[in-house]
């Protein structure tokens, strides 16, 4: 199939069959997606049949450990990396703080890192705190009008002192998809490592990190149809260079080096359900090949559907002179995450939308620096409308109609 089968997709999400959610359209997916059926089934099975210490020789323990290993190996294969290059942790924010502590030991005063003001605070705050150790923090700033990160501006910040460049695959309020491969190549050419926050992009299709080339790629399972876990890819060269942050006797295990606290066993095991879902989409749509090739095909299906739905929303918002839409107006280069500066309290508008069956969010979304960098009052915040591939055209039409009535 060349087009996403939306009926098949929505049948994989129990939320769409729930009476309590009937008649409601969910437009706060950037804050967390609905959970797919395979994840729920695996989580239920683990808690009812395998909730014991894993990796012992008895049956329940052995099966639990195997399922945890399955989650790691299958997700890594989908992203084009080695199994032990993928780790689980309690959240992306926590994972980033652990990595920052590792870099704190690796770097010396006078060396530099580059961060942006386009990021969610999780991928900028922990790195900025390295300034306490004498590390120079350089800020790659967005265009205040468009929110765009210009790679040419990055080039002026790079020199032999820079050890790490941190930036988002896309911002959770700007939405523009940054050219990860190009930016990574620039940083690597200058001798720097690269950390990409993929939290706002991964829900739209897991990327092939192996091909893109960053040294670290972070995202959240609860935004990619799974349980509340942070997932991070750390490529071997960097992972073995950074000092171990886990128990000393686990230093030889790459996927344990940066998880000082053991992640939730049941949620790790249930994350294999994410791979089940992506593989089911591939099989239903006739997409074949190696795991990463199947994922690329699913990614393209998802993005095509999202782009088709997003452009009419962007076009409608572009006709209004009573609001400011952040980020680009071309759906081809934007994730379906749309932030609106209304010039007034967005919470009141979110409440009015909810009364019409449109569920959206309002606030700063932990992107205070990105909002302030575009001249938005972060204390007031923005209205954010975000969707993913299971959203229907009818729901987007209902959103536009509701906005037109309320605004």
Write out key terms for the chains shown:
single chain, 407 residues, alpha/beta, Aspartate Aminotransferase, domain 1, Aspartate Aminotransferase, domain 2, 7-stranded mixed β-sheet, 4-stranded antiparallel β-sheet, 15 helices, globular
What does this structure look like?
The structure is a single chain. The chain has 407 residues and is of the alpha/beta class. The protein has two domains: 6-35 and 291-406, Aspartate Aminotransferase, domain 1, CATH 3.90.1150.10; 43-276, Aspartate Aminotransferase, domain 2 (3-Layer(aba) Sandwich). It has helices at residues 6-11, 37-49, 59-78, 92-106, 125-128, 151-157, 180-189, 209-212, 236-241, 265-270, 272-284, 291-318, 346-355, 368-373, 393-406, and strands at residues 25-26, 86-89, 112-116, 136-140, 162-168, 193-197, 216-220, 230-234, 324-325, 337-341, 358-359, 361-363, 382-386. A seven-stranded mixed β-sheet has the order 2-8-7-6-5-3-4, with helices on both faces. Strands 9-10-13-12 form a four-stranded antiparallel β-sheet, covered by helices on one side. A two-stranded parallel sheet has the order 1-11. The longest helix has 28 residues, at 291-318. It is globular, with a radius of gyration of 21 Å. The two termini are 39 Å apart.
């Amino acid at each position: 199939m060349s087009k996403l089968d939306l009926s098949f997709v929505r049948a994989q999400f129990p939320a769409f069959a729930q009476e309590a959610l009937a008649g409601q359209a969910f437009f706060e997916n950037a804050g967390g997606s609905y959970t797919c059926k395979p994840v729920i089934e695996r989580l239920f099975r683990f808690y009812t049949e395998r909730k014991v210490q894993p990796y012992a020789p008895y049956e329940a323990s052995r099966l639990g450990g195997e399922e945890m290993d399955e989650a790691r190996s299958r997700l890594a294969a989908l992203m084009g990396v080695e199994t032990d290059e993928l780790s689980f942790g309690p959240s992306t924010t926590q994972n980033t703080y652990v990595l920052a502590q590792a870099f704190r030991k690796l770097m010396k005063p006078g060396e530099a890192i580059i961060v942006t003001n386009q990021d969610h605070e999780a991928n900028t705050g922990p790195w900025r705190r390295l300034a306490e150790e004498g590390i120079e923090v350089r800020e790659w700033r967005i265009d205040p009008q468009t929110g765009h990160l210009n790679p040419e501006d990055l080039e002026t910040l790079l020199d032999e002192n820079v050890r790490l460049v941190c930036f988002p695959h896309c911002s959770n309020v700007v939405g523009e998809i940054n050219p990860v491969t190009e930016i990574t190549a620039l940083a690597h050419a200058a001798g720097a490592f690269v950390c990409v926050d993929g939290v706002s992009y991964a829900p739209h299709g897991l990327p092939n990190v192996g091909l893109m080339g960053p040294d670290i790629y972070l995202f959240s399972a609860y935004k990619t149809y799974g349980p509340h876990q942070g997932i991070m890819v750390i490529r071997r060269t960097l992972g073995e260079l950074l000092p171990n942050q886990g128990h000393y006797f686990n230093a030889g295990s790459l996927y344990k080096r940066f998880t000082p606290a053991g992640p939730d066993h049941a949620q790790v095991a249930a994350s294999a359900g994410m791979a089940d879902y992506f593989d089911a989409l591939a099989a239903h749509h006739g997409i074949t090949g190696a795991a990463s090739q199947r994922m690329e095909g699913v990614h393209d299906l998802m993005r095509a559907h999202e782009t088709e739905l997003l452009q009419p929303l962007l076009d409608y918002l572009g006709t209004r002179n009573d609001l400011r839409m952040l980020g680009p107006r071309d759906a081809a280069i934007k994730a379906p995450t749309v932030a609106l500066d209304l010039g007034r309290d967005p919470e009141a508008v979110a409440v009015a939308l909810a009364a019409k069956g449109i569920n959206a969010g309002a606030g700063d979304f932990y992107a205070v620096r990105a909002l302030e960098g575009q001249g938005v009052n972060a204390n007031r915040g923005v209205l954010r409308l975000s969707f993913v591939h299971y959203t229907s055209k009818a729901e987007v039409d209902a959103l536009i109609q509701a906005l037109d009535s309320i605004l």
